[in-house]
Design goal:
Blueprint: H1 22-43, H2 52-84, H3 96-116, H4 120-147
Helix pairs in contact: 1-4, 2-3, 2-4, 3-4
C-alpha cells in the first residue's frame, strides 16, 4: 500500500520546481532578448554580414521554440503529477519520446549547420535561431504556468 504525501489531484504552481516559476521565466525571456540584441549589435559591426539571416533565424527559432514549449506544457499538464508522485517516469508519459526527438532535432539542427555551412554570413542566423528557440519556448511555458492555479 502506497502512502500519499498530502498531494491533491490538481496541479498547482506551488509544486512546480524553481525553474518553472514566473520570475524565472521572465528572467530567461529578458536574457534571450538581451542576448539577441547584443548579438545583432556585435555582428552589425561587420559590413559583409547580412542581418537578414539573423532576423530569419530568430523568427524561425521563435516559431519552433513556441511549438516545443506548447508541446511540453501539454505533456506536463497531463503527466506532471504522475511524475512527481513517481507513478511514472518522464519517458513513459504520452508524447515524451516524440517531444525529446523533436527537441534534439530542433536544437541539433544548428550544431549540424555549423559543421556543414562554410559561410559566416549564414552562420549569423544560427545563433539568433538558438536565442529565438529558447525565448519562444519560455514564453509558451510561461503562458501555461500563468493558467495554473496558485
Amino acid at each position: 500500500m502506497q502512502k500519499r504525501l498530502f498531494m491533491s489531484d490538481q496541479l498547482t504552481r506551488r509544486i512546480l520546481p524553481f525553474y518553472m516559476k514566473l520570475p524565472v521565466f521572465w528572467g530567461f525571456i529578458v536574457f534571450t532578448l538581451a542576448g539577441q540584441v547584443l548579438w545583432v549589435a556585435f555582428i552589425s559591426r561587420y559590413p559583409g554580414i547580412d542581418l537578414r539571416w539573423s532576423s530569419i533565424g530568430y523568427a524561425f527559432g521563435i516559431v519552433l521554440g513556441f511549438m516545443q514549449g506548447r508541446w511540453t506544457s501539454r505533456l506536463w499538464n497531463r503527466s506532471y503529477l504522475q511524475v512527481v508522485r513517481r507513478e511514472i517516469i518522464f519517458c513513459q508519459a504520452k508524447g515524451a519520446k516524440t517531444l525529446t526527438y523533436f527537441t534534439c532535432f530542433a536544437l541539433g539542427l544548428p550544431v549540424t549547420g555549423v559543421l556543414l555551412i562554410k559561410s559566416t554570413v549564414q552562420l549569423t542566423g544560427i545563433q539568433s535561431y538558438v536565442f529565438g528557440f529558447i525565448g519562444g519556448m519560455n514564453v509558451a511555458l510561461m503562458l501555461w504556468v500563468r493558467r495554473i492555479p496558485k
